[in-house]
């Protein structure tokens, strides 16, 4: 454990070693040797990927961030007064822009103690931690650089003195997991909750496919660049020779599963060497690599997921246009 930039109120622990950083090698070996190629979306988020995601959040087509912020601005005070929370654990914290709204509500309520961000992106986490301790005098930050699929057991226990905690997973990140994995992850997250703690979960809602598809295929091509970033990550980390521009960005709404899929489609036949793995991978012209699913929810579907994960919905908040939902849930 170390203090970041000599700041006494910030401690950051890293559980991602150079060797198994974000389990990229395993995922590439597994995902690129399947008949239908696939790489999990957590590998988008190196420093450049995190920056591109921040740009996506400001795009006119990308309504989820605006909608979720609107809900938080309208409901943070109620969430804090209902839970009495003084500590926020945030999984996949990114720039912590939304955390700031909850921390401000805790500060106003006089309960604010600690923020525990967990993210695979070291640079985003460190920058956010330093900004937040500057902004809130009473705040300490205990950051965890890790993978929430593998390192939930590294989340520190409640701060001494035991204030209720909110464990948040925002930004619709839970939608990146197919139903079985999603329920397992929710169950594991639920294990972090004491009886007085609550899960705060952000989920994008089912809506007009045209609106959904535009959100993942913006006119400026920022999402396309974000999508191709995974190829830059593989090139750098595993000495591969992907030509990212040889792959076209694809985003479509799968009506049967009610999820968005992002894929990269080879514009021409490509033979790629992943030297770090001693692996050669062939792409036929038009062959696709799936890089993300982003499931869209209805309230009944989410309640069923909670039930299967040993959780129960306490309160449901949506924005004025009903685009996005925040759920407050407890452990059964
Ligand atoms: C869709 S962004 C959401 C960021 C922020 N919570 C928000 O709502 O704007 C997903 C974030 O989760 C992080 N992330 C994705 N998969 C992760 C994993 N398996 N473990 C830890 N962090 C992860 C990414 O680095 C990124 O910061």
Explain what the structure shows:
With 332 residues, the protein is of the alpha/beta class. It has helices spanning 24-32, 47-57, 63-83, 97-109, 122-135, 179-190, 209-215, 222-238, 299-308, and strands spanning 2-3, 10-14, 37-38, 87-91, 114-119, 140-145, 165-169, 198-204, 247-254, 259-266, 270-274, 279-283, 288-295, 311-318, 324-331. The strands form three sheets. The chain has a nine-stranded mixed beta sheet with strand order 1-2-6-5-4-7-8-15-14, with helices on both faces. The chain has a four-stranded mixed beta sheet with strand order 3-13-10-9. Strands 11-12 form a two-stranded antiparallel ribbon. Helix 6 links the parallel strand 7 (165-169) and strand 8 (198-204). The longest helix is centred in the N-terminal third of the chain and has 21 residues, at 63-83. The mean pLDDT is 95. Residues 42, 45, 50, 53, 65, 92-94, 98, 118-121, 124, 147-149, 170-171, 173 line the site of S-adenosylmethionine.
């Amino acid at each position: 454990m170390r203090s970041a930039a000599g700041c006494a109120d910030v401690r950051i622990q890293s559980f991602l070693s150079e060797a198994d950083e974000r389990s990229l090698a395993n995922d590439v070996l597994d995902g690129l040797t399947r008949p239908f190629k696939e790489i999990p979306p957590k590998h988008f988020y190196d420093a450049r990927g995190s920056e591109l995601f921040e740009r996506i959040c400001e795009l006119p087509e990308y309504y989820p961030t605006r909608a979720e912020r609107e809900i938080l601005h309208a409901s943070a005070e109620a969430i804090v007064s209902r839970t009495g929370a003084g500590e926020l654990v945030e999984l996949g914290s990114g720039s912590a822009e939304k955390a700031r709204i909850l921390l401000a509500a805790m500060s106003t309520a006089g309960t604010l103690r600690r923020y525990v961000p967990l993210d695979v992106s070291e640079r985003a986490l460190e920058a956010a931690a330093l900004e937040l301790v500057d902004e809130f005098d009473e705040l300490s930050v205990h950051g965890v650089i890790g993978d929430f699929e593998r390192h939930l057991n590294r989340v520190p226990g409640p701060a001494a003195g035991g204030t209720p905690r909110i464990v948040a997973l925002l930004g619709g990140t839970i939608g990146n997991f197919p139903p079985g994995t999603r329920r397992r992850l929710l169950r594991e997250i639920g294990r972090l909750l004491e009886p007085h703690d609550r899960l705060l979960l952000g989920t994008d809602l089912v809506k007009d496919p045209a609106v959904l598809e535009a959100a993942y295929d913006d006119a400026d091509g920022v999402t396309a660049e974000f999508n191709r970033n995974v190829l830059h990550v593989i090139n750098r980390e595993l000495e591969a020779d992907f030509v990212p521009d040889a792959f076209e960005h694809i985003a479509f709404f799968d009506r049967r599963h009610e999820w968005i899929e992002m894929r990269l489609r080879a514009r021409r036949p490509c033979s790629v060497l992943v030297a770090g793995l001693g692996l050669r991978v062939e792409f036929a012209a038009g062959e696709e690599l799936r890089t993300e699913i982003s499931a869209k929810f209805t309230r009944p579907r989410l309640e069923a997921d909670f039930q299967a994960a040993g959780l129960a919905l306490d309160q449901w908040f949506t924005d004025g246009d009903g685009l996005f939902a925040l759920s407050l849930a407890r452990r059964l």
